[in-house]
Amino acid sequence: MLEPQGRFRLRIDWTLLLLLVAITGLGLLNLYSASYNVKNPMFTQQIYWIFIGFSVFLITATIDYRVYNKVAYFIYALGILTLILVLVTGLIKHGSRRWLIIGTMRLQPSELFKIAIILALGHFVDASPPKTEQGRTLQELIIPSLLAGFPFLLIMIQPDLGTGMLILLIFFSIMFLLRLRIRSLLTLLSSIIVLTPLIWTFVLQEYQKNRILVFLDPASDPSGHGWHYRQSIFAIGSGQWSGKGFLSGTQSKFHFLPAQWSDFPFSVWAEEWGLIGSLLLMGLYIWLILLSISLAKSARDRFASVICLGVGAMFFWHVVINIGMVMGLLPIVGVTLPLFSHGGSSMLTFMIGAGLLMSVSSRRYAFE
Amino acid sequence: MRRLLLSENSEFGKKFRYAQIFIIACFLILAGRLVQLQVVYGSEYRALSNHNFLQKRRIDAPRGLIYDKQGTVLAKNIVAFNVYITPLFFKERSFQFLIRLLDLPQSDIDFIKHRIMMADGRKRTYSLLAIRDIPKEWAMILESNKNYLRGLDIVPQEKRFYPQGALASHLMGFVSEVNREDLDNFKEYKYLALDWRGKTGLEWKYEKQMRGERGYVWRILDARGRRVHDPKSRRWMPKPWRKDPVPGLNLHLTIDAHIQRAVEQAMSVYNSGAAVVMEVKTGKILAYTSKPSFDPNELSGKLSTTRAHEIYANPLKPMLDKVSQGTYFPGSTYKVIPAIAAVEEQLIQHEEYHLCKGWYEYGRNSSFRCTHSHGLMNIHSAVVSSCNVFFFMLSERVGMDRMARYARLFGFGTPTGFNLNHEKGGFIPTKQWYAQKFMEGFRIGHTLNSAIGQGNVKATVLQTAMVYGAIANRGKLVQPQIIEKMTDYQGNLVRGFSPIIKREMGFKPETYDFIINALSGVVNEPTGTAYKSRINGLSVAGKTGTAQVRKINRDVLNKEEAKWSHLDHAWFAGFAPVHDSEIVVVVLIEHVGVFASKAAVPVTMNIIRKYYEIMGNRKR
């Protein structure tokens, strides 16, 4: 039986809950506008997903996080099995095998796997504290590197550059925050430098390389990939101070934005709500991410800290990469905007992540 | 209740702070970029995003129509199907499909390639003309395959059509698409590429009135180049979102298509020449023809270079308006000037007779000849039988400058004010002009030559019509007029034109009696030069003329052409009826080489007979 140790006084973290409601609410509003003149039940679909998402959030939050600590490797193993299952039987869309069909739903296990890797790393850090005062040695980083490296490879085979990269980013974010020896830190840094050209030559597909090349020189392809950049930047820029108004974004209404509901919702938002609306949305994200850092800080044990950091990192990188990409600061990769983008897998992943935060937050205080 | 100690979390230490700083720094960069895009360059991006989906499409104004006196349409607009492409959406696949679909000439394919290649940047979103005036069947084929031809539009546009073909072609002129030079040379007209511009004739003279005012409409296109029809989307359009074009003014000519056709029929025997019919009292032109003519439909359309070269290289000059642009020696038709001057100023008596031996003795030079020996001549019979010798004598009495003064009084030497096709004024020489022009200065020989409409005297057909009209009108000089009125597209009168009396000569009534009587004698007296061609019952007066052609440019012409190119021109200027005249008719036939009476007179008689026929039928 999984029995929590000690008694906690459960407290609902209202700030976290309100942030979630605000972001999903704005996201829904934005999707209404983005899909306004499209014959596609995306809006109703998203309402279902939000409903399911909040249910999953509540369930995740109710369960004591120490239970997750115990089943972390089990969940991880389940995740790896699912990833292999996807490679064998998954649905191919746009040239990559990412989707599993469950009933009428399509799920992207690689998205959900981010939770598994956070739990697994948390369990590892919690179970094996640094052996010396100076910090963890290289040998002590072999197991977590393998934990992250194997699923990374499985995901890149699909291929799904965005998710694979995020697994690595979450891994490195957590690792850098651990107590490390200087040598381990330097090795970690240099491994990123070594990995980049390796990924470029062996992992990246031609179209992905093209996107990055176009990003470096958008003028080289004004009607192809460069077109997406330009149109997204036109959309954001044309929002000016206060935006064109709800349902009045011409870039989205006349389909100048690519995948405006999943990857480019921020462009739609910024076009219709301007700088004021964009800063408001970004403010909500900063608040949420800083909240997860302070939760990590005040958490009772290392496992809780790591999962708060991991979930925070997941939110952070998603937001930074997505917004950076639509504003032309980063190459275009399929990275969703947390709780804002249309799509079930992404919604579930972030709701589970938020549920973990809530689970930790609710159990910070206890009776003696 | 107290807070738990965070003993286990010592592993992370200060790194939480680093993480917070890193997060805030990253977001500051994003916020900075946001400010850069939305505030610093916001207005530019707003303009760019508007340009994305808004397309201003011009609506060309229909060109004014041209009617004859009876309301027959002489020039109108018909629909032509033009193909437009938007390079941004018109990709190679559409292009290949288009080539497979239609049997396009290579020149059209090359032109489309050129247009696509030249379009860069913003121009790629423009709709550019690719093929002009395709057959209707092609337009239907393209329309039914529209889904496979992204970025291609078939736009019905107006083109000029002259239902009467070559009828009065020099008067009508023709239109053509503006070229680069036109855009530069006629800035005040604010032409845009693809506009039609009147090139010659009335099409150019009334260009401003007939063009109308261009309108526009804003259109919304989505990212795939498809037009958004939803009326709700108008809120994104600039206001006003549509401006209707104002059609050009319609011209109602004084020309009578029936008479015009009769004149052209009468002229059809000859290759080259001109004829004009004018109302004596009002100066209204009823017919206006120059030969050879051209088909304005051909010149207004797709004219191939070889065909254009053929037309412009024709030695008979089909593009020259021989009524008001060509100048000729008036020949004997000019004799009315010294005759009127001499009678008006009483320099000769009606009973004064002179003997014509066939030549005129003047100094050592005996080259001033007559057609034959006329015997005893007075002023009346000299006009009737066109005796040069008598006029040589007379001109010495009248003098060069007095003759010039009378000529100018009648309107010779300056354009009539008709102002069409760069109307020429002809030339009336004076003593002073000869003194300046020639080394040996003025000589009496110049006066003698002038008296018979040779030497340096030059006149247009239209001037001659005006002068004979003034004679028939007993001294009232009326400016030739071609426009009856202008109306707008709804038929409202915009401007009417009333006859312009240029001058009242104010000669003695006896002078008019004499000259009208003499001109009547030309047709109706057995010795008259036009007597043989008269038509019984037709009351006509007039004067024949033969204009010698200067033997110039012979080296330029090949032998075949040289045979006719030095043959003389035949004139007849007449009016009918003799008293209280209605119309004046002037006919010039180039290079006939026979006496005027054998060429120009029958044509004129024919025209006058036809005129009465047409008018008679109309009354019934």
What is the compact description of this entry?
The complex is a heterodimer of chains A (368) and B (620). Chain A is mainly α and 368 residues long.
Shape of chain B: elongated
Oligomerization state: heterodimer
> Largest chain-chain contact?
A-B, 62 and 50 residues
Instruction: Give the helix tally of chain A.
Output: 13
Rg from alpha-carbon coordinates of chain B: 36 Å
Q: What fraction of residues of chain A sit in β-strands? A: under 5%
Distance between the termini of chain A: 23 Å
Number of helices of chain B: 22
Average predicted confidence as pLDDT of chain A: 82
Approximate strand percentage of chain B: 15-25%
Topology (elements, then pairings):
The complex is a heterodimer of chains A (368) and B (620).
Chain A: H1 14-34, H2 42-62, H3 65-89, E1 91-93, E2 96-102, E3 105-107, H4 109-127, H5 142-157, H6 161-177, H7 182-203, H8 206-216, H9 225-238, H10 250-253, H11 265-298, H12 302-326, H13 344-362
Antiparallel strand pairs in A: 1-2, 2-3
Helix pairs in contact in A: 1-2, 1-11, 2-13, 3-4, 3-5, 4-5, 4-6, 4-12, 4-13, 5-6, 6-12, 9-11, 11-12, 12-13
Chain B: H1 15-40, H2 42-53, E1 54-59, E2 66-67, E3 73-85, H3 92-101, H4 106-118, E4 128-134, H5 136-144, E5 152-161, H6 169-172, E6 175-177, H7 180-185, E7 196-198, H8 201-205, H9 207-211, E8 215-220, E9 242-243, E10 250-253, H10 257-267, E11 273-279, E12 285-291, H11 296-300, H12 305-313, H13 336-344, E13 354-356, E14 359-362, E15 365-369, E16 375-377, H14 379-384, H15 388-398, H16 400-409, H17 431-437, H18 444-451, H19 461-472, E17 476-478, E18 483-487, E19 493-496, E20 501-504, H20 509-524, E21 541-547, H21 559-565, E22 569-576, E23 583-589, H22 596-619
Parallel strand pairs in B: 2-10
Antiparallel strand pairs in B: 1-8, 2-3, 3-4, 3-5, 6-7, 8-9, 10-18, 11-12, 11-23, 13-16, 14-15, 17-20, 18-19, 21-22, 22-23
Helix pairs in contact in B: 10-22, 13-15, 13-16, 13-20, 15-18
